[in-house]
Amino acid sequence: MMPIFRSILPFLLASACWPAAAQAPAQAPAPAQQLTANASPIAQTQTATKPNATPRPPQKRSLRQLGLVEIPGSPGFDQVAVASGKVLLTHTAGSSLDVVDPAKRRVVAQVINLQSPRGIAVDTANGKIYVAQAGNNSIAVVNFQGWQYSGSIPVSDPPNTLALDDSGQRLYWTSAQNNSLSILDLSTRQNLGTIDLGGRPRGMVWNQERGAAFIALQDTSEIVAVDPKLQVLSRFKINGSQPTNLAYDPRTRRLYVAVRSAVIAINDQDGGESNRVDAPMGVDDLWFAPESGTLYAASPGELTVIKAGDGQLTVVDNIPSSIKGHNVAFDPESNMIFLPGGREGKSAMLLLRPMSAEQAGEQDVAAKVK
Question: How far apart are the C-alpha atoms of 199 and 176, rounded to whole Å?
Fold first, then answer.
């Protein structure tokens, strides 16, 4: 079935912008969807204290919650991206690309009938979005204008992760089924070639400094760099098991790698490790915000906030959440963090924002969120 565009009308979705108690009329009961502190998507943690013991001061949080967006369909997202102020979600469980307007706190459009949507790549210059369809061996093309589906490009194997080069004319795509990396010429829609990576590919980033795609190989614990001629420039063996995702800092020439129970920083030239920090078991997705030098690491039920100054990693916050997901994204224009996932069998996305030092000193986000 051909994918189609579906606009989401405001009255079809419950509002996910939870009004603060101070804004509600005093005589009116709280709305059914309003989140109380006890039902907050940001889970609260309490430390038991002995009688007469001095209670610990509340933990200073680095993020505060802005709202929660309800998303149609069952939970199950593969990747997340940001384009034109909207959040784009490949909703594998819903066979759709969901477009969320965080300002309106709702889904504003969907491209439905996608076949097992996986990776996503955004070409801002040309106003196009590419979505890997593992279910029918193709890459769907969606236009920014009206979020319209404009066709699919057939490929030889089920595609998973996507990455665009600097020109926006070559699309790198991996296939976990065949442990391969291929390059697609978007001007001709022809495949330029395929290389056997020697391991199961997971996360991939384009490194503009070296002019190569860096791919994490989960089963061999390696990072491999491949240039536009499909030549392997580097192959790093990392000191960590099951690498899942990558983020790149061009200023420090550091690659940040999510491995089992840790996030590590390595040099993009020789793979030398500069340092690492502990992370929750199952840490999966990374998003680097170069403006603030902050690295966000998502794992099911927790978001880890890491400062990455000069490639040195320091954990500044671990935020538990009842929204269970493995993706995270950050939009520098709105200064928002997006955490999609599920809760009680329903899809949702948590909206967060970094707090200033003054705000962090005054309140604990876990207790204050509504």
Answer: 9
18-33 per-position pLDDT tens digit: 333 333 333 333 333 3
Look-up of token digits 């300002």: 103
Whether 206 is in a domain gets the answer yes
CB proximity list for 211: less than 8 A, separation 6 or greater? 165, 166, 227, 228
The CATH number of whichever domain residue 304 belongs to comes to 2.130.10.10
Q: For residues 350 and 68, is the Cβ–Cβ distance under 8 A?
A: yes
Query: Residues 192, 185: contact at Cβ < 8 Å?
Result: yes
Would you state the pLDDT for residue 41?
57
Q: Classify residue 50: in a domain, yes or no.
A: no
Considering the domain boundaries, does residue 24 fall inside one? no
Report pLDDT digits (tens) over 22-74: 333 333 333 333 232 234 455 544 344 334 444 444 567 899 999 999 999 99
CA distance linking residue 153 with residue 139, whole number of Å: 5
Domain around 191 = 4-8+60-368
The pTM of the full predicted model, rounded to 2 decimals, is 0.83
Residue at 18 is within a domain: no
Number of domains forming the structure of the chain: 1
- Burial letters 169-198, b for 16+ CB under 10 A, else e: ebbbbbbbebbbbbbbebeeeebeebbebe
